[in-house]
Amino acid sequence: MKVNVKVVGPLQQYVKKPKSQWDLQEGTVVNKLLNLLGFPEKIRKMPIMILVNMKFCKSDVKLKDGDEVILLWPVGGG
Q1: N or C end of the chain: which has fewer CB within 10 A?
Q2: Is the pLDDT score of 75 beyond 80?
Q3: Distance between CA atoms of 4 and 7, rounded to whole angstroms?
């Protein structure tokens, strides 16, 4: 299956390309994708904001063919 990935903001420093398309096995979960993208373990354990098809989700969500995944660094402020 093919999945489109967009990495936004400071997370871009951990990947070769901020926009890419991945050919993954059926049933691949987001956390596996984070590993394939090359994120260090310490970053994968942080609360990365994950959107699949413009909906927030957790890293255990199974991806489907044609999904769009956007990865963002958490934003805080006051």
Answers
A1: C
A2: no
A3: 10
Q: Is residue 78 part of a domain?
A: no
Name which of 54, 49, 52 is nearest 62 in CA terms: 52
Coil, strand or helix: which one is 71? strand
- Residue 65 CA: distances (Å) to CA of 22, 23, 35: 10, 9, 19
Residue 61 lies in a domain: yes
Q: Which helix (H) or strand (E) is 30 found in, with range?
A: helix 30-37
Rg of the chain on CA atoms, in Å: 12
The pLDDT assigned to 78 comes to 60
Is residue 12 assigned to a domain? Answer: yes
Q: What's the rounded Cα separation, in Å, for the pair 62 and 64?
A: 7
